[in-house]
Amino acid sequence: MITTEQREKLRGWFAGRLPDDLFEELTEITVDREEITVIGRIPEPRLAADAPDAERTAALESRVQEFRERTREDRMAVAREAEHRFRRKVSWGVECGGRQTLFTHVAAPVMTRLRQPERQVLDTLIAGGVARSRSDALAWCVRLVQRHTDDWLAELRDSLEHVQRVRAQGPDAEPGQADHAEHTDDEE
Q1: Which of 127, 146, 147 is nearest to 137 (CA)?
Q2: Is the pLDDT of residue 153 over 50?
């Protein structure tokens, strides 16, 4: 987990490194141990105000695809630099017309041991057609919990940041360690 300050520095690095004309606005940067996801807003296609939904959907999809193809080399250059610097894969996405589209993302394997009652929950989701596999069912459960506990998780993340700062100032901390605790582990 990274602190708010580390996240702000990461966002600043991308804001400074991305070509000025890549996005209208850098809307979101999320990070975990494996991946940094960069999402920016791109201009909507110009359509008549009364354009049918099918036309609007096709235009948005085409705009996103055009952007993805046209900016691939620039995004790959930034990703290579960021992956070397931050030691995480970089994934990309856009917001266009109120919709968010991810181009790439990391599907990280997670090992866990589940007892029979937990496996039965996953198997019920599979039998009900909600998921194709236990892995899909587990991911569905995580998304469900995430959706309903955003406030609680945000408070927990804030608490963890506070714990990291206090630990870095403790009696076992080496001189200068408190300053180092404010930087990501893999900054150069």
Answers
A1: 127
A2: yes
